[in-house]
Design a protein that fits this description.
Elements (H helix, E strand, L loop, with lengths): L1 E9 L4 H10 L5 E4 L28 E8 L4 H13 L12 E8 H6 L8 E2 L4 E5 L12 E5 L11 H13 L5 E5 L5 H8 L4 E6 L2 H13 L6 E5 L10 E7 L2 H14 E13 L3 H10 L3 E8 L2 E7 L1
Parallel strand pairs: 6-7, 8-9, 8-11, 9-10, 11-12
Antiparallel strand pairs: 1-3, 1-4, 2-3, 5-6, 12-14, 13-14
């Protein structure tokens, strides 16, 4: 299938109304290329902020892009978009250059275009995430490398919730332990547990795409003898006792199955819970306490929370 990219060179003032026009025209999302991103100050904890490419941004103004399927109605749709954008002048909105370009994009190229923004990232004291298509030489002898191809599954390994989980695994996983990774996604947490010395890791996910992606990444990292990936709904049917259970999922789901985790975790073992928004932190803590855990540590990164709880 072919898609048409419509790009509008406009101003910061016009970004919101132009984006709304594109959404109403059938675009499921927009890309905003704002050169101010090149100079924005960001917190750099483990070197995870890499240099943005100036060539991807306009020299001035803002570029708003959207993608529409190439069909018999495309010409009419583009004309309507142009008329709607020009009508914003009636509301005294500065459109800047208001230059509109149309180009054709093959779906195959579009599906892999994101790869150029995904580079090696040091996410903790020991771990570095490296995309499979990049060459990387370890900086330190004890550095642990995870090669990752996220594919269509959630989880490039650089989201704050994942970073906190890996940091928590570093603090809790010991050699020859059993680990269960609930909602494994791309499999990055299971791979990390295996590299930390776990003797057996069970990676579970309900999504078939995630299961396939995790299996691929497990093989890429040569930990398939340690990590088994299977389709499963949370801990349903799991009866093996684990030293560590890790779950990077929604707070409400953690609350719902915390008692199931308590039946699986060995006495003295750990439950690492992440994917928790700050507003849900206390709710999750209370449920963990009532399920027989004690809170060992709370990690906060941006608007996200991870909790290390001990049984």
């Amino acid at each position: 299938m072919k898609w048409s990219e419509i790009a509008i060179h406009t101003t910061n003032e016009a970004v919101e109304p132009v984006s709304n026009i594109l959404h109403e025209a059938g675009a499921s999302g927009v890309v905003i290329e704002d050169p101010s991103e090149l100079y924005k100050e960001r917190e750099d904890r483990f070197g995870e902020i890499y240099q943005l490419n100036k060539d991807d941004y306009p020299e001035e103004g803002v570029m708003v892009k959207a993608y529409l399927p190439v069909n018999s109605f495309l010409g009419e749709t583009v004309d309507e978009i142009k008329k709607a954008i020009n009508s914003l002048l009636l509301y005294d909105i500065d459109l800047g250059r208001n230059h509109i370009t149309i180009s054709e994009v093959n779906e195959e190229e579009w599906a892999t275009a994101w790869k150029k923004y995904y580079n090696p990232v040091k996410i903790s004291e020991r771990f570095t995430i490296v995309p499979t298509w990049e060459d990387y030489t370890p900086v330190h002898s004890d550095e642990l490398i995870i090669e990752l191809d996220p594919g269509m599954a959630f989880g490039t390994g650089t989201h704050p919730t994942t970073v906190m989980c890996i940091q928590a695994l570093e603090r809790t996983v010991k050699k020859d332990q059993v680990v269960i990774d609930v909602g494994t996604g791309s499999g990055v947490l299971s791979i990390a547990a295996a590299l930390l010395g776990a003797k057996r890791v069970h990676a579970l996910d309900l999504d078939d795409v995630a299961v396939q992606s995790a299996r691929l990444n497990v093989k890429l990292n040569k930990v398939h003898d340690t990590v088994s990936v299977s389709r499963n709904n949370l801990l349903d049917g799991v009866d093996e006792q684990a030293d560590v259970v890790v779950a990077n999922i929604l707070a409400d789901v953690i609350i719902r199955f915390a008692k199931d985790v308590a039946t699986v975790v060995k006495p003295g073992g750990y439950f690492i819970a992440s994917g928790i928004i700050k507003q849900k932190k206390e709710d999750v803590k209370q449920e963990l306490l009532s399920s027989g855990f004690q809170i060992e540590e709370t990690i906060i990164m941006e608007d996200w929370v991870a909790i290390i709880a001990k049984k």
